[in-house]
Design goal:
Layout (H helix, E strand, L loop, with lengths): L2 H15 L4 H13 L3 E4 L8 H8 L7 E8 L8 E8 L3 E7 L2 H12 L5 E8 L9 E7 L1
Antiparallel strand pairs: 1-6, 2-3, 3-4, 5-6
Helix pairs in contact: 1-2, 1-4
Length: about 140
């Protein structure tokens, strides 16, 4: 069995444990593992002080911004929740939001199966007008 097959089975088995149908779990796990990189938006960026925090990111060079993911199995709204934390080198960290629910289910299953999930800052969105909320795009790789 290849390393890729092992990752897929581990993630799919975790998803089945979250009450996914095995066929859907296998297809979703394959899609995640085979993708070189998955780019996604960060959900929940309009809550709390997150808009100000994202605006603050625009002051720094992209190379100074690191993204990390924190599994929140005790989250009352979603037991598969994965928080997105941005860290500016030498400045500090802030929770910017969460992975979208469907992707969080896959990523949390991968993390629960002790698979490495790499994350990277892509860009801040919503800078076109004063009426637009800021958004955040990140890239993931399992």
């Amino acid at each position: 069995m290849t390393a890729q097959h092992s990752k897929v089975l581990a993630i799919a088995n975790r998803l089945v444990g979250q009450h996914w149908q095995r066929a859907h779990a296998m297809l979703s796990a394959w899609a995640l593992v085979k993708a070189q990189t998955v780019e996604t938006r960060v959900a929940g960026v309009t809550f709390g002080q997150r808009q100000e925090a994202i605006a603050h990111l625009t002051r720094y060079d992209d190379s100074r911004i690191r993204i990390s993911l924190r599994r929140e199995s005790g989250n009352a709204h979603d037991p598969a929740a994965v928080a997105v934390i941005a860290t500016v080198e030498g400045k500090g960290s802030y929770t910017m939001g969460y992975l979208p629910r469907a992707l969080a289910a896959l990523v949390s299953a991968a993390q629960d199966a002790h698979r490495s999930v790499y994350s990277a800052f892509e860009r801040v969105t919503g800078l076109q007008s004063t009426c637009t909320n800021y958004g955040l795009r990140i890239a993931l790789r399992v």
